[in-house]
Design a protein that fits this description.
Two copies of one chain form a homodimer. Chain A has three helices and seven strands. Chain A is an alpha+beta fold and 126 residues long.
Chain lengths: 126, 126
């Protein structure tokens, strides 16, 4: 398993399975993951696993698509949480030697409130 | 210009240039764009252009990367706004015949407040 898209799809599968040791095998020891929406940076395999492992429970991951271009795979996932609704993430993962070496993930919370009124005439809600 | 990544890169360039007619040429007449973070759906070229054209001014787009897999291009952009800080978007665009036919964009606002305390021991801020 060395194609970036395959590695990333399997990473999500192992996270969903809460199989933390197996998920860690798909991360480089010195992996760095950025979350721009909160300006959080997670350095190192053990920290990335710790954040996922300790994420408040009740979540189910649905992988919507995984694309690949060169060393980079991009995934789009929905995460349904029993208490908080559906989150989404678009994740850019750079893969080297079958492991994620670098990640940038755009996490989007479930909607709260209404979008800005100035654009209401051109959009619909779904 | 028919490669999806090329079309998407040029779309961002034309939006940045506020060249709305030229930007519209890169969108299918019946394009549909979803924004999952607000559950907004924008149907049709003229509505997509209207939303961009009417977005409160003061913004500058930086294209961070554009990847491509088959008919789909994925872009990562930062949008610096003079009044509101830096937004980001991860956008999946399906391109047919040199035009964007379908889009899903994950827009992330500038951070407000601190991230959840439960994960502070494993992350740093940047």
């Amino acid at each position: 398993m060395s194609e970036p898209a395959e590695v990333v799809r399997e990473l999500w599968n192992r996270i969903q399975a809460r199989d933390w040791d197996a998920a860690g095998e798909l991360l480089a020891e010195d992996v760095v993951v950025d979350w721009p929406q909160t300006r959080e940076r997670i350095r190192g395999r053990s920290n990335v696993i710790a954040v996922n492992r300790n994420y408040p429970e009740g979540w189910t991951i649905r992988v919507l698509r995984v694309l690949q271009d060169g060393d980079t795979a991009v995934s789009e996932v929905a995460v349904d949480h029993v208490d908080h609704g559906t989150f989404h993430a678009a994740s850019f993962f750079e893969v080297r030697d079958g492991q994620v070496a670098r990640g940038t993930e755009y996490w989007v919370d479930p909607p709260t409130g209404d979008p800005p009124a100035w654009r209401a005439e051109w959009v619909e809600r779904y």
